[in-house]
Structure prediction request, 78 residues.
Amino acid sequence: MKAAAGDSDGLPSPFPWGPAMHAGLCLLRLPARDFWAMTPREMQAAIGGLRPRNAVPDRTGLEALMGAFPDGEIGSRQ
Prediction:
């Protein structure tokens, strides 16, 4: 039986330090003191992981939108 999280031997995956440090120190430009003081939950919130995701329309919804807002002919802009 496979563990819910981790690899096939049942151990959890190691924490992704490289991507976390890149996001915190390079993208967010946090001072090292602030980066190392953050909890994983605070880092997740800072990089946008806690915001609600927008719903994606299914095929029927997409077709309804395409019918309501059809593309015009190319070159017919005025």
Observations:
- The longest helix spans residues 17-27.
- The helical segments are 17-27, 32-37, 40-46, 59-68.
- The chain has four helices and no strands.
